[in-house]
Amino acid sequence: MTIKDYVVMEKAKLKTLVESMPVKPHLFIIQVNDDEASTTYVNGKLRDCAEVGVRADLMKLPITISQADLIKEIDKLNKNPDVHGLIVQMPLPKQIDEEAIKFAVNPLKDVDGFHPFSKMTACTPKGIVDYLTFEGITFQGKNAVVIGRSNIVGKPLAKLLTSKNANVTILHSKTKPEDMNFYLEHADIVCIAIGHKGFLTGEHLKKTAVVVDVGINRFEGKLYGDAEPNLNVALQTPVPGGVGLLTRLTLIKNLIEAYQHGI
Ligand code: GUN
Questions:
Q1: Could you list the residue range(s) of the whole structural domain that residue 37 is in?
Q2: Is 257 a member of any domain?
């Protein structure tokens, strides 16, 4: 099933679940940037929430805000029992330490899954694993290669695949090409999140490989993944209309989980 159809199906299930809830789960998004791409993501999240019937609010703060003032705003929402999920959209302005902000969000409300004590799993990794599982792909004993080591995707994805008993290798921008090719030749699952349009060409991949493309690269007004499209493999997630949709779906699943845990 395409990711688009899978997400439509999953959202319909969530909508039915939310309809049965007397009080609706409530997501709060803080945005501290004027970034066009970020605004597109935030609008997508707000649209998804409306579709599923959960509440969502956006607070835009000035990019000149100090770290201490941002943490004060987070604290108010941490303590507000009317808010079940809280996310601070990345990136943040230079004067603010991203790690300090991740730590400032109440782990019970951390629906991004960024806090080390978060009750929730990071959205992009969980979205990917849930979709692949739906597609009948198993992880135990498989060679999984994760290209990219970001805190949002590469590292948590490697951790989640490890917990599913895959043999996980993390590669990155400093990996030597001959080593990259060696690992790709043996890979059953390749997840790429390196931010480099068309980096993965497929010539070293097995025909039975699964390719998950997390890249979002803007070029001449269009979106491209980190892999060349239409590789000769068993399954490849498209860009656009791929992992981004899975991330947003998982955010709502995490919100419902946070709501059900209670605060
Ligand atoms: N910026 C890019 N992706 C994400 C995400 O999943 N969550 C947040 N908070 N910021 C992001």
A1: 22-106
A2: no
Q: Which comes out higher in pLDDT, residue 263 or 25? A: 25
In a domain, 12, yes or no: no
Question: Is the shortest distance between the CB of 112 and ligand 1 below 6 Å?
Answer: yes
Single out the residue of 200, 170, 205 nearest to residue 186, CA to CA. 205
- Give the strand pairing for 222-224 and 217-219: antiparallel
Q: Tell me: the pLDDT tens digits for 6-19?
A: 999 999 999 999 99
Structure confidence by residue, pLDDT tens digits, 133-182: 999 999 999 999 999 999 889 999 999 999 999 999 999 999 999 999 99
Cα separation, 237 vs 249, whole angstroms: 15
Q: Same domain, yes or no, for 204 and 238? A: yes
Helices (H), the chain: 3-19, 36-52, 67-79, 98-104, 123-134, 154-163, 177-185, 243-261
Ligand 1 geometric centre to CA of 91 (Å): 8
Judge if 130 and 228 occupy the same domain.
Answer: yes
Please tell me the distance between residue 123's alpha carbon and the centre of ligand 1 in angstroms. 9
131 and 227 belong to one structural domain = yes
CA–centroid distance, 30 to ligand 1, in Å, is 11
* Ligand 1 binding pocket includes 88 (Cβ within 6 Å): yes
CA distances 11 to 16, 45, 50, 245, Å, are 9, 13, 11, 11
Q: Taking 60 as the threshold, does the pLDDT of residue 263 lie above it? A: no
Average pLDDT in the chain? 96
Residues with a catalytic annotation lie at 45, 89, 112
Which of 90, 120, 243, 255 most suits a substitution to test ligand 1, by most atoms within 8 Å of the C-beta? Answer: 90
Ligand 1 closest atom vs CA 251:
6
CA of 179 relative to ligand 1 center, distance in Å: 30
